[in-house]
Specification:
It comes from Microthlaspi erraticum. It is a single chain. By secondary structure, this protein is an all-alpha fold. The protein has helices at about 1-5, 10-35, 40-45, 55-60, 65-70, 75-85. It is flat, with a radius of gyration of 22 Å.
Length: about 90
């Protein structure tokens, strides 16, 4: 049974599945530990609705969002310029 799935042709499938599981785990852990609206303990859940705008803003403005804020949404800017800029 193991020889059926442990062939070199299947390695990309394992890699893609591993990346997807990693992204899901990162998202779940980030939401449980950092999201101000998720309360795990019973005492925090009993507090009701909190007006903690500063904590919510801190969660929303993470490193990745700050990094890509002023970037152009292009994957290959050189190729885009080549095909769209008439002076290039």
């Amino acid at each position: 049974m193991a020889s059926r799935w442990l062939r070199p042709e299947v390695y990309p499938l394992f890699a893609a599945t591993g990346v997807a599981v990693g992204i899901c785990a990162y998202s779940l852990i980030r939401n449980i530990t950092g999201n101000p609206e998720v309360r795990v303990t019973k005492e925090n859940r009993a507090a009701g609705i909190l007006d903690n705008h500063a904590e919510g803003e801190k969660y929303k403005e993470n490193f990745l969002r700050k990094f890509v804020r002023n970037k152009q949404p292009e994957i290959m800017p050189g190729i885009n310029k080549f095909f769209t800029d008439p002076t290039y």
